């Protein structure tokens, strides 16, 4: 059972590495479209110059942190924070009834806003579970 509790943070980390790298690469492959989608959002239009670059860098940075055991806790915290931000943004857009294009990139932009909300909420739950297990079971034995 203890082995399973150690493997869960690792598996969730792999999931987030794939998710964040996929999302960042999708945004990079059609960067102009991504910039236009960000500027179309009434919540984000005040940051169109640096936000697209920042989002891509942060996604790659968190993915990198998740790749190493020594930095996994920081990466899981970053994943949690990023997914809470994405979830809050999605919920806010749903509450305003704006029909905006998704700026996620790739297959993720095919999801409806409600599907995004549920997906993001699931990611938040996964990151909380992985973070708590990682904090509990990744410490060296005394």
State the shape.
globular
> What is the CA–CA distance across the termini?
20 Å
Please tell me the overall pLDDT.
87
**Sheet of most strands:** none
What proportion strand? under 5%
Residues in helices, as a percent range: over 70%
The low-pLDDT segments are: none
Describe the structure.
The chain is mostly helical and 142 residues long. It is built from five helices and no strands. The protein has helices at 2-29, 31-40, 51-66, 72-96, 113-137. The two termini are 20 Å apart.
List its salient traits.
mainly alpha; 142 residues; 5 helices; globular
Helix-strand layout with pairing:
Elements: H1 2-29, H2 31-40, H3 51-66, H4 72-96, H5 113-137
Helix pairs in contact: 1-3, 1-4, 1-5, 3-4, 4-5
Care to give the gist of this entry?
The protein has 142 residues and is mainly alpha-helical. 73% of the residues lie in helices and 0% in strands. It has helices at residues 2-29, 31-40, 51-66, 72-96, 113-137.
């Amino acid at each position: 059972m203890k082995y399973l509790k150690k493997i869960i943070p690792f598996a969730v980390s792999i999931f987030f590495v794939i998710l964040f790298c996929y999302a960042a690469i999708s945004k990079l492959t059609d960067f102009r479209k991504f910039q236009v989608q960000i500027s179309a959002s009434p919540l984000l239009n005040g940051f169109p110059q640096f936000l697209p670059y920042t989002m891509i860098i942060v996604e790659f940075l968190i993915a990198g942190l998740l790749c190493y055991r020594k930095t996994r806790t920081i990466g899981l915290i970053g994943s949690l924070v990023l997914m809470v931000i994405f979830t809050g943004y999605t919920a806010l857009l749903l509450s305003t009834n704006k029909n905006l294009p998704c700026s996620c990139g790739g297959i993720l932009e095919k999801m409806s806003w409600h599907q995004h909300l549920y997906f993001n909420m699931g990611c938040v739950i996964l990151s909380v579970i992985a973070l708590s297990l990682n904090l509990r079971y990744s410490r060296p034995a005394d």
